[in-house]
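Reopening: AAA+ ATPase domain-containing protein still failing for me.
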Amino acid sequence: MIRTVTEQAAATGEQVWQVCVVRNRPQLDGLAQRVPTAVTWDDLVLAPAQQRSLRAIARHVRQRSRVHHGWGFPGYGVSALFTGSSGTGKTMAAAVLANELGLDLYRIDLSGVVSRYVGETEKNLGRVFDAAETSGAVLLFDEADALFGRRGEVRDSHDRYANIEVSYLLQRMETYTGLAVLTSNLPDGMDEAFRRRLRFVVRFPFPDAALRAEIWRRAFPPGTPTTALDLDLLANLQVAGGGIRNIALGAAMLAAEAGESVGMRHLRDAALDESIKDERPIVAAEIRGWATENG
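Support: Ran it again with your exact input. Result attached.
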């Protein structure tokens, strides 16, 4: 079938954009960590409110040129704060957005920037934004507490400088041509005045039992051989999505090593391994019924 001129132009534009993205990667690769984005909305298990907010972020990125430049609305940059405990899906959400938008995702550890570049934080943040401008990459500023946690009552020159660093970062986020996301493990770790400067705030709560069961259901790729997995029992374990996926992978390794399908016994053993890594003891009731002595 012969493609229309519009379709050909769109395809050519997409090819040119992908070339620009790839060519500009070396500039950012030396400043930040590129994160894989092979995840989609189907991989992300969140409550409807969080899903709605994330889809709104994607919509704002796609339509901002038309709305701000074409229709005259003020502003331009799309910035967001993702808050929630470790493993609740903040990084995965950023990866889903990058995949949806056809952009690279780069992670910048703010704790490393602050600790390594004392007195030069703005300069190094500026390098990241400048390098990212030409590719429009999604920038994920992880561990924002390292920077925002230093902001508070001004008692000396160090406090004043910390405030300047925060203001500079937010100013660059507000004018950045791509999407810039801050992550924080502390829901109230940011001053309200700074929070208001961000266009979106998405809270990632610890998943309830129903969401945990759904995360377990999606944790195993279609090609994984499984036997008698009880999602309701698995959901009793008080771990977030990141921990669930780690346990599923560990159980798959145990089953593969034994030449067996993944079963509840493998998941029990993998959960115990994960608890040792996280230094979080598992309560017996959480894994009760996961496996019999011979199962």
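The mean pLDDT is 84. If you still see a failure, please send the error message rather than a screenshot.
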